[in-house]
Amino acid sequence: MIPAPPVPAALRRYVVARLPYDVAFGAPGVHRGLPSTTLTFVLPIDDPLRVSWAGRPASLHAAWGSLSGLHTEPAAIHHDGAQQGIQLALTLEGARVLLGRPAADLAGALTDLDEAVVPPALRELPERLHATPAWAARVALVDRTLAGLAARAGDPEPRAEVAHALALLTSGTGVEAAAAEVGYSRRRLSSLVRAECGLAPKAYQRVARLEAARRLLGHRPLAEVAASCGYADQAHLTREWSALAGCTPTTWLREEFPFVQDRGDGGGAGSEHD
């Protein structure tokens, strides 16, 4: 793990995790990137990030800066035995403020930063990072760049009722009840949520539940995780995990959990390096 200060207070509405990493695995391999309610922004150092959708080798691409929107399938992160870089988890509001576009524009996509429609300051960031040798200076550069974008962006936050509905869905409230709470029909809410994040409300809720379960796996028994996160039972948890993460919870604990623990991962499920 690379020691780093917390995300600056001015950025915490937009960046829920900012993780510098320098990891040696000992041998080439592949890691899973799980679905998440945040967007993943990865800035590799020394070698480009090689990522694809799991089970779809034809989607493999290499990039010096990668953006992934919300998705409902796992990504596959390929490495040659070591990886270095800085990874960020951006909120839906962060997409609007820092990327200048709604998260829905990037949903289900693994986008090369060079090809993305983003502010020039972000497109220039990989080259500037490569010219910065010290980790503390690299983290500071990322923070300054994002703070500058936030200061110039005004406050283009999602509609308050949509943000409230997404919070309700994350907490486990049903789609019908969430729509009633914010005063919309289910159809209208579905259209607005999809326009904001790129997922239908039910899909967003499934991803949010997976994200909550991921934080508890390895710390509590599977049956307790299922009950705490709103699954009908442990079998339901296993089915949903297999559908969204591409493996059972037990497989993820065996193959991925030690890596996540070693990194001291503080969130950003769905991140490219989880």
TrEMBL record:
It comes from the Bacteria. PROSITE patterns: HTH_ARAC_FAMILY_2. The keyword NAD does not apply. SUPFAM superfamilies: Homeodomain-like. Residues 175-255 form the HTH araC/xylS-type domain. Keywords: DNA-binding, Transcription, Transcription regulation. This is AraC family transcriptional regulator.
